[in-house]
């Protein structure tokens, strides 16, 4: 009986040990899960804070544009319309980078003179013949007829290329539709993307608000500096086309109504958020502006802002 009692006691001890191990494992798993949940929640909160700051950056830019229209001096006189980013701080919580681009400084792929489009593609590295072919296909994509231009492409050419779609036969509604044009290389599209628009509805560009890399590309490295509209997100136009007369011939004056805005918020907690918007100023007193687009952008790699450090308050 003593042996039986000793055996039962040993068995009970094993059960107790296994029970303690199970409790320890469960406690560890619960602790890890809670830490993961807490960290995920903190990340969500920090990202939400960055998004709110970026949206505030867009609001600051719109207010500056409205103020500029009234007083010709927006955002304490610092507002630029050529896409050059300006920075400000929100105390120690975050910093904002705000870039405003007058759309008249970009090339409208719906209304631009064909010579300007050819020059743009050439400046991105295409030959004269390739550039003209891209323009022919671009025009065939957007025009309402089925008549193929010399180097263009209509429905038959899209079908021969194995594509399930054809030309849109109407205006581009976004610049990303340029990627759907038959034969336009992706790297070429990425190179010219920062310098094209569908909002200006102008045959040329206003050189006073055009991005500096675009002016250098079209005018032949005639400007100093290396400022970029998109802070390095897209490769700059690389091969310069020395044709100063083109800018003079196709120069236009901006109406000062349509602007693209990029606001990048960086928080003290390490979150980054990009808000992109296109806003049109109106003549209505009750609704002085309206957004034409509103979307999240891709966060660029960290780059130092030009200007004084520390940044001024927003």
Q: What report would you give on this structure?
A:
This protein has 314 residues and is α+β, with helices and mostly antiparallel strands. The protein has a domain at 107-199 and 201-249: EpsJ-like (Ribonucleotide Reductase Protein R1, domain 1). The chain contains seven helices and seven strands; from the N terminus they run H-E-E-E-H-H-H-H-E-H-H-E-E-E. The strands form two sheets. It has a five-stranded antiparallel beta sheet with strand order 1-2-5-6-7, with helices on one face. Helix 2 (114-123) packs across helix 3 (128-142). It is flat. The termini are far apart. Residues 221-242 have low confidence and may be disordered.
Main sheet attributes: strand count, strand direction, barrel closure: 5 strands, antiparallel
Low-confidence stretches: 221-242
Q: Strand share of the residues?
A: 5-15%
Q: How would the global form be characterised? A: flat
Number of strands: 7
Distance between the amino and carboxyl termini: 85 Å
Derived from helix and strand composition plus strand pairing, the structural class reads alpha+beta
Oligomer: single chain
- Arithmetic mean of pLDDT: 83
């Amino acid at each position: 009986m003593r042996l039986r009692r000793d055996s039962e006691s040993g068995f009970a001890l094993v059960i107790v040990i296994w029970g303690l191990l199970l409790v320890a494992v469960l406690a560890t798993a619960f602790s890890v899960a809670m830490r993961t949940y807490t960290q995920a929640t903190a990340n969500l909160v920090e990202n939400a804070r960055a998004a709110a700051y970026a949206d505030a950056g867009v609001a600051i830019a719109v207010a500056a544009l409205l103020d500029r229209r009234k007083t010709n001096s927006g955002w304490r006189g610092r507002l630029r319309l050529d896409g050059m980013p300006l920075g400000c701080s929100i105390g120690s919580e975050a910093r904002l980078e705000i870039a405003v681009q007058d759309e008249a400084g970009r090339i409208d792929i719906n209304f631009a003179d064909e010579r300007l489009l050819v020059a743009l593609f050439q400046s991105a590295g295409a030959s004269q013949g390739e550039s003209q072919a891209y323009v022919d296909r671009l025009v065939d994509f957007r025009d309402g007829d089925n008549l193929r231009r010399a180097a263009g492409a209509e429905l038959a050419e899209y079908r021969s290329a194995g594509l399930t779609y054809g030309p849109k036969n109407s205006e581009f509604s976004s610049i990303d539709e340029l990627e759907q044009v038959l034969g336009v290389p992706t790297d070429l599209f990425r190179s010219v993307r920062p310098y094209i628009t569908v909002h200006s509805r102008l045959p040329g560009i206003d050189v006073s608000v055009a991005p500096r890399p675009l002016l250098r590309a079209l005018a032949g490295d005639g400007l100093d500096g290396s400022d970029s509209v998109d802070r390095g997100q897209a490769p700059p136009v690389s091969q310069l086309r020395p044709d100063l007369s083109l800018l003079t011939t196709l120069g236009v004056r901006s109406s000062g109504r349509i602007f693209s805005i990029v606001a990048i918020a960086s928080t003290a907690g390490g979150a980054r958020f990009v808000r992109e918007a296109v806003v049109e100023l109106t003549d209505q007193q009750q609704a002085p502006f309206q957004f034409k687009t509103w979307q999240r952008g891709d966060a660029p790699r960290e780059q130092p802002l030009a200007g004084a450090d520390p940044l001024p308050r927003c």
